[in-house]
Structures are given as structure tokens and as C-alpha cells.
Specification:
transmembrane helix, Protein DETOXIFICATION
């Protein structure tokens, strides 16, 4: 067997990671960028800026978090397709895995879309405790966003498959086109037609549908897309058919649910604050969601490069990859944290004009900046843990840190800074737990390699 370290240096250098991660960055920030664009257009065109932003906050949260919850499908696709590409030179196994993932994504996406459209008022009032005066405009936004949910989920799965081919430029082009369509749509529906929340939501849904079509076309060019009609024809033994994905989906769904519930607790706690602070939280949360995705390329790089090294027992190559990811995480944390802090303080006038909202943003900005910094490291650690299939550890840690967040919100949730402090504490504990576990992962990797090589 060939030495792993040399191969790791050749295939997984920092330069290679950057060439993959920088285009991937544009892909991952596209989703939150759509909501940021909605926020900007609504704040600039709404008749009642404070009320509109207060209604947008829970409505956008439900839509974005619903799709975020289904991110486990993309990660499961990465786990299956990345290993299929290594084993399968003809591409048949890869297309079979994509068919399985797309079928499940379509089923789940359509189901979620129907749930959002039908039960939006109940979700807003019962789950998030939204002010009754804001239920009607928030519901309108959710119902216009609901038709775009299946397209968004399909896009996530197709993008995951494309990234497994180590091509991040092709899906980026499609994302840029859909983002441009969203800007044009917001300009038409919000600025010229004065559509308000409904107009912004409609523009986002249209751009998501366009993006899904473009991603599917890209996957066909890469020869990883199965016949689209086969996606609709499922075998009779449906559970057995999806079982290979369920091995990933079960634990990954649990992880996503615990993290999403954490954001739900934060949103519900904020809903009891003043309208100005709710508006400030909406803008801060959208900025946070946008910059948080700057860490996703690091996570995706780990999930794409580490599996074959860990499966081969190449501990030296795996450690080199993780070391390079750590260096990139440090650089990203400094750069992203600095830009976020600038926008949240001196640059917040770009997003909102109300002086009370801007002041509330400045008061909490230092804590949210700290959350962004820690999150950059968390992303690469998260990717390494998932690449090593350490699902049980990640699930357990996510549940424990959820209780930490709940306790922090109970005792310090009477201010925006206190709410974000709870989130930052949760992520910091998760990072330390992952570092401890990854040390053991490298040792287990070396042990498996020695056992396979024999005396």
C-alpha cells in the first residue's frame, strides 16, 4: 500500500483546498443571502419598517430553518456519493445513489411545502409565540415561500453530488444566476409593485425554482444525474430502497433537529422583547446566517477529502488535512469576524434605518461577532466528525449543548447579548468536545491501518 502522507500532500494541500473552497463559499452563502436581500428590500420599501421587520423575522426563520433541517439530505448524499465515485469508474453506482437521494428529497420537500402552506399560522403562534398582530403578514410571507421549498431541497442534494466530483465552479454559476434573479424579482415585486412581504417571498421562490433547474442541467452535463422519470418511480420495497441513506439520515436528522430547535428557542425568547429588539435580532440573525455559511466550504472540504483517507487507515494524511483545515479556519475566523463586526456596528445603516433598531444591533454586536469566530472552527470540526462517521458522539454532544443553551436563555435571555451568549457557549463546548474526540479518531485510524497491513 502506498504511503499516505505523500499522497495526502499531493491531493489535499492548502492550495487545493482553497481552489475548491472559495467557489464553494459562493454556493453556501446563496441561501442566507436570499433572506438578507429580502430584509434589505423590505426595510427600504415598507410603509411600517419596524412592523414589517418584526413580522419578517419569524416568517423567514421558519422558511430558512425548514430547509436547514433538511440539510441532512445533502450531507447524506455527500457521504454516499463521495464513496461511490471512488469505487465506480462507469458512473452507474453514482447515478443510482443520486437517484435515491433525489427521490427522497422530492418526497420530503413536497411534504414540508404542504405543511408550511397549511399550518403557517399555527407554527408562528404556537411554536414561536409570535405577536397576534404580526401573524397575518408573517403567514403571507411563509405561504409565498412554501412553493419554493421542494426546489431548494432538490438544489441542496444536486449541489452535494456536484461537489463530490470536486467541481465547485459549475454549481456556483447556477447559484449566481438564481441570486441575480432574486435581486431582480425583489426590485420588481417590492420596489415597483409595492408587494411588501409577499413580493419578497415570491421573488425568493421563483429564484429557488430557477436555481434547481440550472443545477439539474449541470448534473446532467457531469453525467451524475439519473433519468428524471426514474426519480418518480419507486420500488415496492420503499424502506429497503432508502435504507442505505437512512444509515446517514437518521443521525444527521437528529443533529439538524437539535440545532434547529436551539435556534427556535432563541427566536421564541426574543419574541418576548420589544419590537425594536425583535427587528434588531432579525437583521443580526440574517447577517449571522449569511456569514456562518462562510464555514461550510471548510466542512464540505473535510467531508469530501477525509473519507478515503480514513477508510484507508491513512492517519498521517488525515492529520495533514485537519491541520490545513485548522489553519484555514483561523484565517476565516479573523476575516469573517472583522467584516461582520464592521457591518453590525458602523455599517448597519445599510440594512435598516430605524435608530432604535440600529442601537440594539450595536449593543449585541460584540457577542454575535464572538459566535461567528467560534463557528468558523466548529464548521471544519463538524465536517471531520461526519467524515469519520462519529454520528453518536455528535448527536450526544448536540443534545447536551442544547440543554446548555436552554439554561443560558432562561437566566440571561432578557437581552439580545444574553441570547447570543447562550448560543456562543453552546458552540464553544461543542468545539472542545470534537477536538477531544478527533484525537481518538486519529488513533483509531492508525489502528485500523495497522490491522489491515498485518505484521
Amino acid at each position: 500500500m502506498k504511503g499516505g502522507s505523500d499522497e495526502g500532500e499531493e491531493l489535499h494541500s492548502t492550495q487545493d483546498m482553497l481552489r475548491f473552497a472559495i467557489p464553494a463559499l459562493g454556493i453556501f452563502i446563496a441561501g442566507p443571502l436570499l433572506s438578507v436581500i429580502d430584509t434589505v428590500f423590505i426595510s427600504k420599501t415598507a410603509v411600517d419598517e419596524v412592523r414589517s421587520l418584526a413580522a419578517l423575522q419569524p416568517a423567514a426563520f421558519i422558511c430558512d430553518m425548514s430547509v436547514f433541517l433538511l440539510g441532512f439530505l445533502a450531507r447524506a448524499t455527500t457521504g454516499r456519493v463521495s464513496r461511490a465515485i471512488v469505487r465506480d469508474s462507469s458512473g452507474e453506482e453514482t447515478r443510482a445513489e443520486m437517484r435515491r437521494a433525489l427521490s427522497l428529497a422530492l418526497i420530503v420537500g413536497l411534504t414540508l411545502s404542504c405543511i408550511l402552506f397549511t399550518f403557517a399560522p399555527m407554527l408562528l403562534s404556537k411554536m414561536l409565540g409570535v405577536d397576534p398582530r404580526l401573524i397575518e403578514p408573517a403567514t403571507e410571507y411563509v405561504r409565498y415561500r412554501a412553493p419554493g421549498v421542494p426546489a431548494a431541497v432538490l438544489s441542496y442534494v444536486v449541489i452535494a453530488g456536484l461537489l463530490c466530483t470536486k467541481d465547485s465552479v459549475t454549481p456556483l454559476r447556477s447559484v449566481l444566476w438564481s441570486g441575480a434573479a432574486n435581486v431582480v424579482g425583489d426590485a420588481i415585486f417590492c420596489h415597483y409593485m409595492r408587494g411588501g412581504l409577499a413580493g419578497a417571498a415570491l421573488a425568493t421562490s421563483i429564484s429557488q425554482c430557477l436555481g434547481a433547474c440550472l443545477q439539474l442541467m449541470s448534473a446532467r452535463e457531469k453525467r451524475i444525474l439519473p433519468d428524471l422519470t426514474s426519480i418518480l418511480h419507486l420500488p415496492r420495497a420503499v424502506l429497503s430502497y432508502f435504507n442505505p441513506l437512512f444509515v446517514y439520515v437518521g443521525p444527521l436528522a437528529t443533529i439538524s433537529l437539535t440545532r434547529a430547535y436551539g435556534f427556535t428557542l432563541m427566536t421564541k425568547r426574543v419574541s418576548s422583547l420589544s419590537p425594536q429588539k425583535i427587528g434588531a435580532y432579525q437583521v443580526l440573525f440574517q447577517l449571522f446566517a449569511f456569514f456562518a455559511f462562510f464555514g461550510e466550504p471548510l466542512s464540505q472540504t473535510a467531508q469530501t477529502t477525509l473519507p478515503r483517507l480514513l477508510d484507508a487507515g491513512d492517519s498521517k494524511g488525515a492529520w495533514k488535512v485537519m491541520g490545513n483545515l485548522g489553519s484555514l479556519s483561523l484565517i476565516a475566523s479573523v476575516l469573517v469576524g472583522s467584516v461582520f463586526a464592521t457591518l453590525a456596528t458602523v455599517g448597519n445603516g445599510l440594512f435598516v434605518t430605524d435608530l432604535a433598531i440600529r442601537q440594539a444591533m450595536r449593543e449585541a454586536s460584540h457577542v454575535v461577532t464572538g459566535c461567528i469566530v467560534v463557528l468558523m472552527f466548529s464548521a471544519s470540526l463538524d465536517g471531520a466528525m461526519l467524515a469519520g462517521r462519529e454520528f453518536g458522539w455528535v448527536v450526544g454532544t448536540s443534545i447536551v449543548t442544547l440543554f446548555v443553551l436552554a439554561a443560558m436563555l432562561k437566566f440571561h435571555g432578557d437581552s439580545l447579548a444574553g441570547v447570543w451568549l447562550g448560543f456562543g457557549s453552546r458552540v464553544l463546548i461543542y468545539c472542545f468536545a470534537c477536538c477531544f474526540r478527533l484525537m481518538g479518531l486519529a488513533e483509531r485510524c492508525a489502528t485500523r491501518h495497522s490491522a489491515q497491513e498485518g505484521p
